[in-house]
Amino acid sequence: MVIPHAAASAPGTPATAPLRMARILSPQSLLTAKPLLALVLWLLLTLPGSSPLAAGQLQILGEAAMITADGTPATVSLPYYWDRSRPGQTGGARFLLRFPDLPGRQGMAALYIERAANSYEVRLNGSRLASAGSLSAPVPYAGQQPLLIPVPADLLRPENELLVTIGASASSRGGLSRVEFGAPALVEAHYQRALWFKVIGPVVIAAASVLLACLAALVWWRQRDPLFGLYAIAELGWSFGLAEYFVADDTGAPDVWLALVLAGRAVFMYATARFAILVTGLEARWLRRGMLLYLSVKLPLIALMVTAHSTHAMVLANVVVNVAMALSIVAVLIRAAVTRPERERTAIAAALGLTLLISVLDLIHVWWIGDDYWDSSVTRYVSLIFSLTMGWLLVDRYTRATHMLAALNKKLDSAVSRKEQELHALYLHSREMEREQATLQERGRIMRDIHDGLGSQLVGMLAMLRSGGPSMHTLQQQLQHALDALKLSVDALQDTGGDLATVLGNLRYRLGPRLEAAGLRVDWQVARLPALHDLTPQRVRELHYLLLEVFSNAMQHAGGSAIRVSARHDACQQALVIEIHDNGRGFTPEAAAHGRGLGNMRRRAEAIGAALDLRSSAQGTTVRLTFALAPQPPGCAD
């Protein structure tokens, strides 16, 4: 496609080719998208027409002497519609227009031709001013854009002859519009208005539709909301539907572009109808069947229009199908908005009703003025109404969903806060119960220790006293043993922090004087020991009783003179080792197995997680306790 703004040519020389569409789509033009949209909206409210003119500064050439390719002369009124005069034919015609020069003209003048299709050549007084396309093989649907031709002053005469030759393709909207001749400022104003209305406006609308379609498709991709998908399809369909106004004439595939244009408009109709029905919740079987019927009629009609190049009857049939579809959907929406008024239904019904009203008025206007090629039609812009309505509905839904989500989050935060407070109160209550339970357990343990240890010993001594048999020395030993057990039980209540050396030190402090009184020399060899993190007071108590049993056996039964206590850290075995050795006469472990002392020692060792090893001979008895710390590191021998 060209922007029909031809440069002036010197007398007798060919005119330069009109500028191409790339000039419109330059970066500078795209940066003006926002003011362009504002202008398009203004154009929706005003149809193209003549502005007030200065007297004598503009001539409108509406009659021409026409000679067709077969040599038939005729006088015609412009605009001339080739498809109406010669339906289904391809050919050409020459139009001779005579006009006087402008009175009082100074400098250049200009010509404005709204349509010269499908190819053209313009000559003034024998000199070529502009041309486009091949007159013998015109490209279908070319030459639909307005044309501005500057006229050099030296080409003008008091009486002028303008010869416009066109080549027209069958059913491709060929023909010639009226020609305006006048002062460059006035003619260019009309040209610019037509250019914006017929070319630049659709470009801007199509670009905005593509952008909105991409944004909606991105939202649909993330959320899979069918509304955004339908909105994207509708906008993309309308952008293809506007392509006929700005696609280049020399694309080489006019039928393909025509198919895309017609299919895009059909897709827009179908997607907007589906969008409206989905938003308003009017899903019904007959509506779905009606839209499928629309597609079943529309698609074959599009194929026929592409192959037969849109005859007048086909265009009329296409309009009837579109109007019938629109009337059905609008009637359903208006009825729903009246019977069950809701904001979304009312907005959709109003938008579609307004769109349909403008389209019908546009049809009447085009029919009334005889505009066979719909050059003055504003229907190309009515999609803005529904597009803005769809966009507003989506934004409104998103805003309401966001507010609802914020309210739900606030409610959820409040509920979570209440639950956290309840859980914290339950936690404090459970901790208090755990402390009470621990206190009760400790009290029970102390009671069992007193009952099983000190209590049983006191009961035994009381029985001895009643029998009158025991000696004072025996009673003294029993009392001392009971007192030691009581003191060790009290020491076990203290938290030693896992320090085994401290536990052994307390034991030495309690039993040292008693061991010496029994005639045993104590050899104490306790090294610096790592902490045992699981050495709880309960385990300390068990350890105290176990070691007390060992020392009591050494004092009462071994008959030795010395006892050695050692504690060390075995790095290779990763263990703490406590070893107690006396030099007494020893005993036979098999014989001692029938008593309770050795069994109690093994049970206590198991309770504190230690391995008990007992060895006895004539040279003495050795008791070893091993506390495992960690697996044996590499490089250490067993």
TrEMBL record:
Q: What is its EC number?
A: 2.7.13.3
* All copies of domain Histidine kinase, residue ranges: 542-631
Its recorded reaction(s) are: ATP + protein L-histidine = ADP + protein N-phospho-L-histidine
> Which parts of the chain span the membrane according to its record?
195-221, 228-247, 259-279, 291-309, 315-334, 346-366, 378-395
The record's section on SUPFAM superfamilies has: ATPase domain of HSP90 chaperone/DNA topoisomerase II/histidine kinase (SSF55874)
Pfam family for this entry, one: HATPase_c
Family annotation (InterPro entries): HATPase_C_sf, HATPase_dom, His_kinase_dom, Sensor_HK_TwoCompSys, Sig_transdc_His_kin_sub3_dim/P
Keyword Cytoplasm assigned: no
What GO cellular-component annotations does this UniProt entry give? membrane
- In the record, what terms sit under GO molecular function? ATP binding; phosphorelay sensor kinase activity; protein dimerization activity
Keyword annotations for this protein? ATP-binding, Kinase, Membrane, Nucleotide-binding, Phosphoprotein, Transferase, Transmembrane, Transmembrane helix, Two-component regulatory system
Q: Which PANTHER family match?
A: NITRATE/NITRITE SENSOR PROTEIN NARX-RELATED, NITRATE_NITRITE SENSOR PROTEIN NARQ
Designated name of the protein? histidine kinase
Q: Which organism is it from?
A: Cupriavidus basilensis
